[in-house]
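Annotated sample (chain length 916).
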Amino acid sequence: MKLRSIPVVVAMLGAITYSNATMAQKKAPASKPKAAASQPVKLTEVEGISEYVLPNGLHVLLFPDQSKPSITVNITYLVGSRMEGYGETGMAHLLEHMMFKGSKNHPHVPDELTAHGANPNGTTSYDRTNYFETFQANDENLNWALSLESDRMVNSFIAEKDLRSEFSVVRNEFESGENSPSNILMERVLSTMYLWHNYGKATIGSKEDIEKVSIPSLQAFYKKYYQPDNAVLLVAGKIDQTKTLALVAKYFGGIPKPSRVIEPTYTIEPAQDGERSVELRRVGDVQSVSCGYHIVAGSDADFATFDVLSDVLTNEPDGRLYKALVKTGLATQVWAWAAGQKDPGFLYINADVLKTRSADSVHDVLYSTISDIKRNPITQEELDNAKNKLLKNFDETYRNTEYIGLTLSEYIAEGDWRLAFIYRDNLKKVTAEDLNRIAKKYLIKSNRTSGIFIPTANPIRAEIPNPPDVATLVKDYKGQAALAQAEAFDISPDNIEKRTERGAIGSAKYALLAKSTRGNTVEARITLRIGDATSLQNKATVASLTAEMLKRGTKTMTMAQINEALDKLSSSVYIYGSGQNVGVIIKSVKNNLAATLDLVNEMLHQPAFSDDEFKTLKNEDISNLEQQKSEPQSIAFLAYSRIMSPYAKGDIRYNMTVEEQEAAINNTTAEDVRSFYKDFYNGENATIAFVGDFDAAMVKSKLNGMVSGWVSPKKYAKIHEQYFDVAAQDQEIKTPDKKNAMMVCGMNLKLNDNDPDYAALNFGDFMFGGGFLNSRLAMRIRQKEGISYGVGSFIRADNEDESGFFMSYAIYNPDNKAKLQTVWIEEMDKLLKDGFTDEELKKARTGYLEYRQNSRADDGQLADKLNSYLEVNRTLERDKKIDAKLETISLADINKAMKRFLATEKITFVKAGDFK
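Output written by the structure step:
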């Protein structure tokens, strides 16, 4: 299933999220479903997903998956920015925010989300709005989630007082997006492409419309579109279909079908009759050259062909545009997005260019490469490589019920959820002839919007067909066989320990947790440890570049061949380097795991380190750094890190400035990387964890060949973290022409995670700022004051060294600089003076425990934990003890821990923004 890259607008989570849970609320006891007067009628079943409809028009999708102890409830409303009228831009998104303000029977939505340990959110796009919660699978939680969504459907407050406080939050989100010139360029291009259709208007809306909308208008919009006959409810995960269907009937069946009729939108964008141009002038550090073409609707059989074409043009390293622009050094990156929409959408292509390069040259090469398709048609090999990748992406999503729940919202918005599988079927049918046909028909100058306007005497127009009749398209569609169900795995620490096999290969350690999974998936983590404080002096950059080069070619395979092989194996491999660690992340399936491990082995032991690929990598890394130079978030976090961790220059832990990083990259050669690899890489101190469906004997055999006997001249000795007693500072950095600002603040803590107070300290931070919208910081700074779109805090500590920290962050309008810092300090002072209350602890306890438990339900997170625990000889007995402690921890213990470690006068503040 293809994960659509639609730029949805997210209502509730900030730009930086460190925790999805917050303070808890006492759960209502689960009740048995009563007999419903309105029983669902089954319509169809495709590939394990069943569809029902209630008499009131609500469509219901059920997707049982017993392999994970979680449930996702996702409700999609067929309303987005496409339905907004004059003066209403941003209304659909603003209403999404208001839906978290409470309803008749659920007046405190954030409290309830936290109390049930849910991972929630809401998003808005062009054709739909959706709300979802993922939570631990039990009757109580499922009853609550269905009760919440049914009540929010028709009983949300949408009150004047809530609207006033939310204005500045939404404006803050709007201004955050305004900080990115490339985002604004895309908005400008789309608004120029569409003369009449609302796809030319950004979903976030006009700032003036957001600020001036009236509560009666918003309530009318809500009452019109938030109704059962305009919604599709999906429940996926560990569910009993009969029981779940009865609960749906119980909570939604009594909502009457409205008498109003929603008239379908009928605006059709006329065929473009000539090239259009846009020029954007803003502060920034990297140039962008882009263009857009009108294409078919997402339900059209040709849409899958545009997805393939996008990959053929821009994939790294063999895409035609990638080779013409990035490999030649003209651009630093190129990407494309084919937007599948209800109505005819668009293909958008973007290239980023360093200031020192010619944007005009990129412009010319971009269009000449696209035009060259007519003379040099797309080949069968290019087609096969792109299809393999896209089909792999579909398969990876289909194996994960949580992702399916969220992804289906996009296809529902196009007309029907079954379009997801029809898209896959169409993808398999795409031919090279199809690619060349649509390129010739749609990628023409008169259908293009770019940075140049050229009058044309005899324009050639691309007539965009209307969307197909979706009802006819999906009628009697059966799809492929559904994936086999997996075991209902117990995520308790005791069971995980019982099922985990630990061992050693020389001095390397492994932990293997074999279990059946949906789609026979497996997650693996490998960490190599290298060097010591002396040998790694002045080698931070070459260490990072060496790890990045491992996947860019071996002695027998190019980077393109590695990517092709992984796509065919339906596997993904990521390799990164940071300090002393080289990390490998593997995602695969049981039948292909052996071949994938062979490929990883080749990348680790036979890297090519080609001069050409190294040059490309350096350009890409420098481009990423250039973009950080004027970005408030990057600037603030780097400045804060340099203050709080003042390691000596040259130390592997030293935080380089952006300019120092660029100089280090420019001064590093391919030979430096080759030498570093020979001197440092080894398997002696590796830790390895596998979680999922695999053959343990095969894995151990492959690991033996991967790490056994692999030694290096430079030996490993752990570099210990240092605690710095930093005097409080208050630093301000100006970033001109940036509409959003960033505040980072905090202090260093002299403790490790074995400290008796560490659990209490983290619990306290959870209530102060580490949780969802009802933490103290969120309630004061976002909910009450409306200052910040995203605000929170977190605490971290080393597992051995007494080196930890408390950090907080907030994104906000630069005009609120003084007010933000004042109220933040007020909340910290109040905490240290009065502590938390019994009511706060009562609300937080259940949600915090469920949040910890849910982290073990994710195979990737569990593999991370098992891997990191191997280094310090820990087991999940530690988690069991901490959970037990948290169940009985007292308010006095939490308040004592917060007062022991935190002090307002020790807090350092760093702010970056356009402070005029």
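Annotation: Confidence is low (pLDDT under 50) at residues 1-37, 451-457.
Annotation: The chain has four domains: 34-105+119-185+196-252, 276-401+408-470, 493-707, 730-913.
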